[in-house]
Records
---
Amino acid sequence: MKWVTPGQLRKQGVLGMNSRNIDYIGRNNDRSRYPLVDNKLKTKKAAVQHGMSVPALIGVVRIQHEIQALEKLLEGIEKFVIKPAQGSGGKGILVITERRGDTFIKSTGAALDYRDIKRHTSNILSGLYSLGGRPDVAMIEDMIDFDPMLGNYSHEGVPDIRVIIYRGFPMMAMMRCSTHASDGKANLHQGAVGVGIDIVTGHSLYAIQHNRKVEKHPDTGFRFDKLELPHWDEVLRLASGCFEMTELGYFGADIVLDRTKGPVMLELNARPGLAIQIANQVGLKKRLQLVDEMRPIERKVEERIRLAKQMFGVVLV
């Protein structure tokens, strides 16, 4: 293994955690706006008010007593997702892809009954999965019916697209592909694959799992070098438009591609991770500095996307 010094990383424009926290999150994100993105229920409500496409909300369980009404709430619902409103890192998300009477099938194939569903919901309310262990609420959403062309690149779960937004500009993107190792969740720390995506074309650049380059999906065997995302401009418009909604200068937008709805905003993150740089094999800092060097005037979403494509696109040969 070849070791790289901190000086070499800085020279390559790699953004470190301290600089991310101090220079970009700290200076560009008003703390009063954090609750909007740290709470998925508040994010969803704001997105609906701004006319953005989001997964349909089936219901919300706020107190332990309401868990007894889950049978009625889920009556006739075949596929759904239960998640903590204040969860992080994909923790506490339960995905049900099939129903056989009162038996619920997870994306991994495991079978659950109502007692399991209620126990999981109770754990969410108690704060088991929330930031800082705070009491939480459980959101029940319609499950995304993801675009079939992406089925070869994800296993036991829904792939999503993370776009880093800085001052309204799409800076860098990657698709996160779930695996058996990640329990069907699109979380890199749990074993999902991160695929760097060219800002201009939506075409794949590199793929990583556990911070190591990979060429094929570990479960499906499909190569990542042929991947090109559909509806790419719509993805960028949806992600970039969240800047006006949140008034945050630096954040990550997570987008999924639904079979019928197209791009759908799943959630936002005020402290997006830095592994996206490894998936793209390029540092974020130089891109951030280019935006800082531009005149600080208001620009429409379309203009921000056009400029980002000019500055950050990768030509594939």
---
Amino acid sequence: MRRLFLIIMLLVVGIAPNAAAQDSHYWDNQYGTKGELLGGLVVGSPSDLSATFYNPGWIALHGGASVLLTTKAAEAYSIKLKDGLGRGTEPISTTVTTSPGYLAGRFSSSSDEGWQWAYSYLKKVQFEFDATGIRVDDSSAPPPEGNIWFSGEAFRKAKTNEYWYGLTLSRKIRENIGLGISPYVVQRSMSSRTQAAAQGLSSESHFGQAYGVDEFDFWHVRLLAKIGLAIDQGNLTYGITLTTPGLGILGSGTVYQTASVSGIDQDGDGNVDDPFLAANHQKELSSSWDSPLSIAVGAAWKPAATGVYVTLEWFNSVSSRTALDPDDYLSQSDGSVQSYNLVYGAQSLVNFGLAFDHEFHRTFAIYGAFRSDFSSLPSDADDSLQLSSWDLWHISSGASFTFMSMEFTAGLQFSFGNGESDRFLNFSIDEDGDVIGDFGKHDISYRRLKALIGFNLGFGQEAELEE
């Protein structure tokens, strides 16, 4: 009994380092009509107004008649934690939602002279996680001599959103070379709550229980820019884009933590010790969030009806730091020092992908793409804000057609990945009838299916000619 609840107490008091939310995949979401069907592998080719994000240099080279671009998509994804709370437990988080949106427009459809202007909005990060694990011993009768009846539950909820608002300036520096920049204001919000409760009854009618919560939420605003160079040589096009690190502007957050344990003989002297209680709530804390420098290169070759597209992007690392830095506090029961852990970081990585399209007619084409999406979560870091240690692979396909100066696209994308994560609770029982204290690792599987539809609304010079 003593060993059981010492473990639970440590579990509850130390629950903070495992409050998780995701931002460890940079290529998870893609944008545009053709741009999304090509897996976002369009840094080196003109596609649509998603160039404001992928490579703003293309805005000056290919004006087009489109002044508004939008995509709508629905997605369903599941995250399965195999033995996530010990043997036989399999918490699953299943989410059905709309996919992150994108909206862009031009202030001019001409690409002949001077600076070209465009605007864009996109949801860069969207992640929700909600999983629960429960273990209740079958027998409701008093446990046999020397044994313990046990029940426990835990859940983890996390949500992350990040919005980008941008204005693009692009200009020809030669007839076939375009240079552009898209400054962005980025607003990010994160929230997470991890909660656990456990109780046990010994054969000697000793009862103990433990309860713990760790919660945080914050928002943060930063500035960054994408600078792109685009080169059009007819059948062969290519480009390069640099994304600056984020520059923090302002932000605020809140933390809450509580842990309580009662009915436990902590020192093994045969007497139940005083209850333990620690609770703390801190508000209006300054927040921070850094994003890395990245460099993307891409090319496309389209000698006839079929085109091939390739993009590679390197992301720099982000050193370990805190998103919120609350003060340590003293427990109410014994005055021991308690602390928060709200650390994040990112390792350097390279993503790559290959895509193709084929035009059967100038009004109908098909697309396909395959791309990597590796996790930036450092394998050896004390990272408490990120959950997604798994690497992802994305496969997409679709088609586009034009009707009355409007271009429509439709497609499907399947994403999958497997990984390993630290187990934040272990409700397994060992041979002596005690809860196992070694939390260890558990496997994670991720699956997502996305359906999308998009359209360009054509106005301006080219649209008038087509009419």
